[in-house]
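Page 37, top half.
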Amino acid sequence: MTKVPESPAQRAPLVLTMGDPAGIGGEIALMAWHRARAELPPFVLLDDPTRLERLAKRIGLDIPIAAIARCEDAVETFANALPVLKLSRRVTGEPGQPAARDATLVVEAIDRAVALVQKGSALAIVTNPVHKSALYDAGFPDPGHTEYLARLAGLTKAPIMMLAIHGLRVVPVTIHMALSEAIAALNADRIVHAARVTAAALQTDFGVVRPRLAIAGLNPHAGEEGHLGREEIEIIHPAIEQLERDGIAVTGPLAADTMFHKRARTKYDAAICMYHDQALIPLKTLDFDRGVNVTLGLPFVRTSPDHGTAFDIAGTGTASPESLIAALVMADHMVRNRAKAAGALVA
């Protein structure tokens, strides 16, 4: 029997994608390395080294950029320079000024990141923010990052989006829909799928031995026994009953206005919410700068900072790298937990 290394980040780096080069992805990567490299797991950035050198000078940072030949070389390089794997050509856009031609480079970075993690050259993927409309104009075939990664991974079931900060994890069952559409789309199968994937990921990726899930109601006061809406009775209760039959520890449906205060949050490991804002408002109110977007259900670890491209401040050096730093740290922790969950001993 061979012991799995306790510190997999010593074997290979994380891989960080460029994101839209006109956004803040490049500068928060530079700032993350500059501010926190001693505490961060080694990572390699898929980008254009020349544009990163220009960007570092523009925001007043003296950062050595090391163009490396192999992903694995990032581990030795990381302490002294920011390791970068070159893309196939140079970026043409400038901060705050997206260039349509760069959209193919954005996709190339995602494709290469997946290929690297699938062959074991990288441990996990951290993605910088993309500008979806630019990708659509370039023929991007999927609604967003998550769906594209799921397709590259060959998934047959949809992955699940989790947003996480210290002390709170939330999972929206419906995501980017108008509220009326989200309510119409809500059904027991969606809730059960989101909860099952979340419970499994809490065990394997977050080291929670017996996950506790809180299921939010949809209506005010969780419907007041049908007086303020029947979705809790007709949709959410049947989902909870199925999850209980599955052996998953669940409570609910809970009134959403009372399930996010400090004492309530100690009673569960993740909150399953019925729509986007029900999940994201409490999380972003509690810690706007350090939220992490995690994709659950993929065969590899993927995290992302919980913010957009911020074209309006790109190139100014005023963007906060805290969310990216949190995403890198969380990806590293998830990799370690997966290794433990797979078994400390393997044949």
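Page 37, bottom half:
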Amino acid sequence: MRNLKRVFLISLLFLALLWLIAEPTLFQSASFFALRGPMLQLTGVLAIAVMSLAMLLALRPRLPEKWLGGLDKMYRLHKWFGITALVTSLLHWLWAKGPKWAVGWGLLDRPARGPRIPIENPIEAWVAGFHRAAEHYGEWAFYAVLVLIALALITRFPYRWFYQTHRFIAAAYLVLAFHAAVLFQFQDWSQPIGWVMAVLLVAGSAAGIVVLLRRVAAHRRVGGKITALNYLPGMRALAVEADVPAWPGHKAGQFLFARFDGSQEPHPYTIASAWDAGQRTLRAVIKELGDHTRGLRNRLSVGQNVTIEGPYGCFTFDDDRPRQIWIGGGIGITPFIARLQHLATRKDDAQGQQVDLFHSTTAIDQEALDSLSADAEEAGVRLHLSVDARHGRLTAERLRASVPDWREASFWFCGPAGFGEALKRDLAALGFPVNERFHQELFAMR
């Protein structure tokens, strides 16, 4: 998370600094209306720049994934950029509309306008001819983005509708990119802020076109066929196995996007199986949580086609600590199942580590619990089962009591975000280096 915050803050400060270098007169404005022009430019530059960065992250690029801690973390940064774009766009709109309203209400006096200075540069004059269109279409695109981002932030808004509507942000972005390119201060194109803006607008527009054409990560998609389905009623989850001959392989703990039953929207699922290049099969355990997953077991059948994309994520248990502590809450147990299966066949990969796995669950499915126990025994992992109805809620105190040398361990957590944050705060309060040795999957794509 530290890298996410650094990238977020540095991006904003870097853009603001470059703009101030090009337009140092901001702090010399003698009146409200003298301040209006620079503030329009600053808020507009920040809004379209962070929206461009959000568009680039929407492509699920591989290059920054490892440094940012995985695609799940990148989506968190994408969300922050989206919210920042919404706020700065709103400020930009208020700077554009607010003074006009204030003049109409008699709160401000409209300043006298001097004679227009003729534009001598033919390129600048040509661009100026698009000003009215850029203002008009940019305003309506802003209204569209306002609604679309608001819908994206409403978690109760069904995923299938979110997926369909969220793509339209790319169309609105293309209009706003036109708005920004036309209304950007012409003389600033020769400044560093202009060079950065040109790169962001071109790259963001290309990303927008890819999103609209539904070609995001198309080169990482492979086809497969469902070979087995097993419903686990105690967990209210469906185990799906599929043959994927062209799958490039994955590490335990990574996840994929899958399109089942001809659906257009891809859904993320953690991979619950170790990779075997000889068998080339994948397994996912899908919890009935939303409108899509609740009816999935009635729509899927053995032999049905599935499209898989990935793998993604950096929750891959890679460290050199002598002990690891795994905590899987509910359906968050799936990455650990994959790691158990991996260690069962490749014990040397544990590098002599001692591992304790805590599985906390409210659901009781004896078949699933027996399978987990068998996998843990085969992998040489010490399993701690905690069923809430029998043992009460798993707490940080119980974790520490069960593993006396917990200070020497690294923690790997996948489960309810609230429990993960509480555990992280508890460890941090005791001096544990959570930034270096607490790994948490942020499995929320919205």
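Margin note: The mean pLDDT is 89.
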